[in-house]
């Protein structure tokens, strides 16, 4: 019998394999081969022999525990633990891998495999599942939907604040809830997922701000559009649909139910940037339109919250009335995502920060607050998609070159940028090496390197004696440790 190849232990191959192996009626249950394409197990075994498993991260402990469990229960299970060039796929009937896996062969994605397993194993609760993906705004949107629905229902939330958001984590969470006999406790299950949706009643694609390459340039971020087929009702912004209309149509998805949300004028009017307040025209019962006023708490800052909130609103209208949803949005608070942590300090620290989101944060900030000081930094290795420091540097220069017409920022003033962490060091080095080329564009910017300390919180500003009452501060730090 031909075999099935499951690829990439780093991102859930053991989880997928375990599901397939557990199906007694599954024809290939004894013909699973796992390919550890990045040599994860070899590295863990070497580290274990040197320092013991207590030196592992929590994620690595889980991987190593599952690996040993599968080997114990299925001693004949074949695991290829070394990276091989010119891999022979011809002996496998099916290849299953993460969508970002750098293999140039037709394969079933983990999103599809997980969707099939949900339909088989958890079909009775699929109507309660909400999945969220996108380049930016996934976590914020999942937190907001959770906050809104929690006013009336028992809601289970798993997002990047709680751990990995690979598609297989949906299964792991559902399996754990089932094992603990807690599935029936919840009215809704909300999952943030990287690079696509899985089988669910409702789905949201927040945006595709950057069509970055994945899988060593074999695919791009728009591949998440292919996962629309796994969702019964999907909500996306109308502008996103217009941009990728041809890609969506070429997917030839049967019974596609798209709900297009218009976030442009005249359908949406910004009343105040801070505190954030806007008017949104929405359809009620599909018969008539109503103008609603949305307001946010003063701790929330940034125009990007508008898109997140109307997507959340449209989803939650299926479960709650509009007035109750709008009341919940007004009291919503969000940690570390453009959060006002003091009267003159905004904080935006999360692992998913990219060039576009950093640029938008800075632009919103200098257009809204007087006497701005910006602190930028970050660690590398936070996500699979690293940030390009040189492109970020050029975007910062372009941002200030293009901001001559905004009200708050005076082009005759200089703005200080404090740079810390690995990303900050790279930005400073780029400035030092190229400042002669960029002197005109950067003449209103003062770059200052912070050595030996990261600027992540108010305390860091105090310790460095940078904080005063005259200025307003924006802290941007790309890190999974906040």
UniProtKB/TrEMBL annotation:
<keyword id="KW-0436">Ligase</keyword>
<dbReference type="InterPro" id="IPR036565">
    <property type="entry name" value="Mur-like_cat_sf"/>
</dbReference>
<protein>
    <submittedName>
        <fullName>UDP-N-acetylmuramyl pentapeptide synthase</fullName>
    </submittedName>
</protein>
<dbReference type="GO" id="GO:0005524">
    <property type="term" value="F:ATP binding"/>
</dbReference>
<dbReference type="InterPro" id="IPR013221">
    <property type="entry name" value="Mur_ligase_cen"/>
</dbReference>
<feature type="domain" description="Mur ligase central">
    <location>
        <begin position="132"/>
        <end position="312"/>
    </location>
</feature>
<dbReference type="InterPro" id="IPR051046">
    <property type="entry name" value="MurCDEF_CellWall_CoF430Synth"/>
</dbReference>
<keyword id="KW-0547">Nucleotide-binding</keyword>
<dbReference type="GO" id="GO:0016881">
    <property type="term" value="F:acid-amino acid ligase activity"/>
</dbReference>
<dbReference type="Pfam" id="PF08245">
    <property type="entry name" value="Mur_ligase_M"/>
</dbReference>
<keyword id="KW-0067">ATP-binding</keyword>
């Amino acid at each position: 019998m031909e075999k099935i190849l499951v690829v990439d232990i780093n991102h859930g191959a053991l989880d997928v394999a375990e599901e397939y192996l557990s199906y007694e009626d599954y024809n290939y249950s004894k013909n699973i081969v796992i390919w550890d394409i990045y040599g994860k197990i070899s590295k863990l075994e070497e580290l274990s022999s040197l320092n013991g498993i207590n030196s592992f991260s929590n994620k690595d402990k889980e991987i190593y525990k599952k690996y040993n469990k599968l080997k114990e229960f299925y001693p004949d299970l074949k695991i290829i633990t070394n990276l091989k060039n010119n891999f022979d796929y011809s002996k496998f009937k099916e290849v299953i891998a993460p969508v970002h896996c750098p293999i140039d062969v037709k394969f079933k994605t983990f999103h599809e495999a997980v969707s099939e397993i949900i339909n088989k194993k958890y079909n009775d609760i699929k109507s309660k599942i909400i999945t969220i993906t996108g380049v930016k705004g996934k976590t914020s949107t999942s937190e907001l939907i959770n906050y809104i629905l929690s006013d009336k229902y028992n809601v289970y939330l798993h997002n990047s604040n709680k751990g990995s958001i690979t598609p297989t984590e949906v299964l792991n969470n559902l399996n754990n809830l089932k094992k603990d006999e807690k599935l029936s406790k919840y009215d809704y299950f909300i999952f943030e997922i990287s690079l696509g949706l899985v089988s669910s009643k409702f789905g949201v694609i927040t945006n595709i701000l950057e069509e970055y390459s994945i899988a060593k340039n074999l695919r791009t971020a728009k591949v998440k559009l292919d996962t629309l087929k796994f969702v019964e009702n999907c909500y996306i912004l109308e502008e996103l649909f217009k941009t990728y209309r041809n890609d969506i149509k070429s997917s030839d998805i049967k019974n596609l139910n798209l709900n297009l949300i218009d976030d442009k004028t005249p359908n949406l009017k910004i009343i105040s940037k801070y505190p954030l307040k806007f008017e949104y025209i929405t359809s009620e019962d599909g018969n008539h339109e109503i103008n609603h006023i949305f307001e946010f708490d003063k701790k929330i800052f940034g125009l990007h919250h508008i898109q997140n909130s109307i997507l959340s609103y449209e989803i939650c209208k299926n479960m709650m009335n509009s007035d109750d949803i709008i009341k919940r949005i007004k009291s919503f608070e969000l940690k570390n995502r453009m959060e006002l942590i003091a009267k003159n300090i905004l904080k935006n620290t999360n692992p998913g920060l990219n060039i576009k989101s950093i640029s938008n944060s800075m632009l919103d900030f200098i257009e809204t607050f007087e006497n701005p000081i910006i602190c930028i930094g970050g660690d590398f290795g936070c996500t699979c998609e690293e940030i390009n420091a040189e492109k970020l540097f050029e975007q910062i220069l372009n941002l200030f070159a293009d901001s001559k017409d905004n009200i708050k920022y005076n082009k005759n003033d200089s703005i200080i940028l404090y740079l810390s962490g690995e990303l900050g060091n790279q930005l400073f080095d780029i400035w030092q090496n190229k400042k002669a080329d960029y002197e005109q564009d950067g003449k209103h910017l003062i770059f200052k390197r912070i050595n030996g300390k990261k600027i992540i919180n108010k305390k860091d500003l105090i310790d460095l004696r940078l904080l005063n009452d005259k200025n307003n501060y924006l802290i941007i730090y790309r890190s999974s440790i906040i």
